[in-house]
Amino acid sequence: MTINRRTLLKRSALLAAALATTKQNAIAKALEQTGLKDLYKNDFYIGTAIGNARLNNPPAGFNALVAREFNAMTMENDMKWERVHPEPEKWVWDHADKFMALGEQHGMYMVGHVLVWHSQTPRWVFNDDAGQPLSREALLARMKSHIDTLAGRYRGRVHAWDVVNEAVDEDKGWRKSPWFNQIGPDFVDHAFRYAREAAPEAHLLYNDYNMHNPGKREFVVDMIKRLKKNGVSIDGVGMQGHVGLEYPDIAEFEKSIEAFAAEGVAVHITELDLDMLPVAWDHIGAEISDSFEYSDELNPYPNGLPADMEEKLAARYAEWFKLFLKHRDKIARVTFWGTGDSESWKNDFPVTGRTNYPLLFDRDYQRKPAYHAVAALKK
Ligand code: G3I
């Protein structure tokens, strides 16, 4: 059969159109499968925190979204002492094991949170059977045994541990926690030594909030110097990053990134979220024992964030990511404290029962304008 020139041209046009459609579909598909982790792959890890509600009962598409957007994961609550080790002889591994399995399935950078913290730690930890405070030596032994068991269980699998959390009390120096009161300031040295023994390959971090605060910055810099002088190895500092539209001053935050990096440690942004609600009194930070009474004035957007506020959120997130990109040589990871707005602790802190919008995905797990602003910096 001979094909005339006209038929040939028609067939070629059809073929070209089909190829173009296939190409467009392939591009659309690739975009669907591309997330922040891909856009930022040459800069730093992009992480999220997972709570046990999402772990055990993920909304449709949640796990796929996490795998698409993130390449690092932190367990929000279930490696904390009160959850994982609620009684002297009782360990609860279900959630932590499940978290590890989910992350490993997607080849994530796994973050353990947290080994030594004053908060969410049961009272029995600090007392003997008669309810009296343990001696320094006995409390150190208890700390070591906890770290051995928890960090030891995930040895070689947790890539970074928050070893000590929130040991500094703003401008006032050491937080007067039972760890500090019963052991002394070298509780930090011991925690890092025990963690290094239990998890030799892990990246070990000191983690805190309000790290833009000059007093805290200097204190943490001194802490790193002292640890190093004492032969204790510390790999990084976690700057939590619970920020707002008006606070903190980005220039102060930047000074802290530079100051920590100058000590030879990596900077991790460990718990990023951006509060969109009115500041309750002059409250900033993440001191979990703070709380304020609910009022409608403090909860102005119960039914959705107005467009102008979405824009402000997007612009502020872009500012933060410009800063992180500027210091990409110092920053190892940027982790959001949750994925979608409904999950965020910021709905209940420091005032319970509010509707907040601190993350990049909305309550239906759709990308918000803030997401696109962060993505656009890399396009
Ligand atoms: O799961 C229980 C639920 O069964 C119960 O009905 C409900 C009633 O109170 O409580 C639920 O547990 C709460 C849990 O969050 C899960 O929502 C706890 O009370 C509450 O204390 C816990 O708050 C967590 C907080 O740390 C204290 O551990 C937040 O989710 C978590 O985001 C927050 O994370 C901390 C970091 O670990 C350290 N840096 C600051 C950051 C924010 O505070």
Characterise this structure.
The chain has 379 residues and is of the alpha/beta class. It has helices at residues 5-32, 36-39, 52-56, 62-69, 81-84, 94-105, 136-153, 178-183, 187-198, 214-229, 250-262, 307-326, 369-376, and strands at residues 45-50, 72-75, 109-116, 160-165, 203-208, 236-239, 242-244, 266-275, 331-336. It has an eight-stranded parallel barrel with strand order 1-2-3-4-5-6-8-9, surrounded by five helices. Helix 10 links the parallel strand 5 (203-208) and strand 6. Helix 7 (136-153) packs parallel to helix 9 (187-198), helix 10 (214-229) packs parallel to helix 11 and helix 12 runs parallel beside helix 13. Bound molecules: ligand G3I. Ligand G3I binds at residues 76-77, 80, 120, 165, 209, 240, 271, 286, 288, 345. The site of ligand G3I has 11 residues, from loops.
Number of domains: 1
Count the E strands: 9
The biggest sheet amounts to:
8 strands, parallel, barrel
Strand numbers in spatial order across the main sheet: 1-2-3-4-5-6-8-9
Radius of gyration: 24 Å
Q: Hey, roughly how much beta strand do the residues contain? A: 5-15%
> Could you tell me which ligands this complex binds, including any ions or cofactors?
ligand G3I
Structural class: alpha/beta
CATH architecture: Alpha-Beta Barrel
Helix content: 40-55%
Spatial gap, N to C terminus: 51 Å
Q: What is the element string, with H for helices and E for strands?
A: HHEHHEHHEHEHHEHEEHEHEH
CATH fold-type name:
TIM Barrel
User: What shape does the CA trace take?
Assistant: globular
Question: What is the number of helical segments per DSSP (H or I, 4+ residues)?
Answer: 13
CATH superfamily caption: Glycosidases
What's the level 1 CATH class?
Answer: Alpha Beta
Average pLDDT metric: 93
In the predicted model, the low-confidence regions spanning at least 5 consecutive residues are none
GO molecular function: endo-1,4-beta-xylanase activity
Signal peptide: 1-28
Pfam family, one: Glyco_hydro_10
Active site: 271 (nucleophile)
